[in-house]
Write the structure tokens for this entry.
Amino acid sequence: MENLNTQIFTTASKWVCPAGITSVKIDFIFGGNTLLNLQNISSSWDFNLLLDQNNKPYGVGSNNTGNLGDNTTITRSFPVSVVGNHSFAEIWGGSSGSSARKTDGSVWCWGSNADGQLGDNTTYTKYSPVLVVGEHSFVEISLKDYFVLARKADGSVWGWGNGGAGNLGNNAVDAQSSPVLAVGNHNFVEISAGVAFSLARKADGSVWSWGDNTLGNLGDNTVTSKSSPVLVVGSHSFVEISANKTNISGSVVSLARKADGSVWAWGYNEYGMLGDNTIVYKSSPVLVVGNHSFVEISAGGEHSLARKADGSVWAWGVNNGRLGDNTDTYRSSPVLAVGNHSFSEISGGYNFSLAKKSDGTAWGWGDNTYGQLSNIYLTTKSSPVLCAFITSGDIIENNPMSRTFIYPVVPNTTYDIVFSDSMAIFDNKIRGIGNLMLSWLE
């Protein structure tokens, strides 16, 4: 297992390259060097949202639509603070936007708004949080695509944004720029927004669904889309649900967990993401094989994650590193993420995975094209690596004098670090404004 090492220099110094290291990542930063102590993680299409121990929000990764909430569209490979001095109780990232809930029940959104998914009665993109209109008080939210679901204490479910497949549950198939009520006088205790479809669970363990159903992901033994809630078949009693989060057409999966730890799945299965040792689509729940007992589930893009009581994480479906088993092999049944880790929370992104430990550190594996894992290379990792989510959030990524460099080094060689005119200089060659941070894997 590779471990991430970081060292920050604020004054002139020397750095001795460790044995076996042939390249180092160089960043120029302002501020601190402490890893964030995370309370909550939410992975999305190509970015992550984070809450620290004080409920302060951060974003990292792609930022094309302002989805990181820092009033820019600059992609970040280290966390930046969401502007506005907000404190959130819950946070979610979608395909191109973000949503968060405060303890007073208010919901705030930012990012793309073409379908009204920010809920502010407009369709204009916002680069920092705006309040969802209507003076609502919600106790739970869910966002993974181009619409938001929210639940009230009375069990009613509301939605806004793209509703073209009936996924808002209001007996319509149009977009809404403010919250509308899902019909049926239901009382739900959990919700999960997927890709153009929705899941909700009642206290009796029954699961209900609505929206797109072209691949059986509503679990009602049909492939007919529904614009109001229908019951998932099978007389099952579930304690947790998770709908997948990819806007790739056709990749729609539903997961549900029972009190005995068994996991059931239905929907798209071309790459084995239902975990039943087949690649056959299912329109009703099937058991994930292996006699496992899980305590948490998270549906990713085209893969599924599950966590056991011992903290081990298991995965199945499309791989390319996102399953964390040190291979690229697709799996139709659960495989263990390597490294003997013990995690306390999991979150499946589109083509990467994120997990948190009880010490507040985050670990990731899979695609890292946009720096969403914040490890030292913007490359795929096929096993868990520590995410360098540092507290400063002030990597200077838009200054031509403060770029990120991958620099070749020679093992056991001493390199000079000097400071001159507010600039840090490494090996008399690489220079940038701010302090200097070196990162390497060993």
Summary: The chain has no helices and 36 strands. The chain has two domains: 1-34+391-442, 36-389. Residues 36-389 form a domain with the Methylamine Dehydrogenase; Chain H fold (CATH 2.130.10.30).
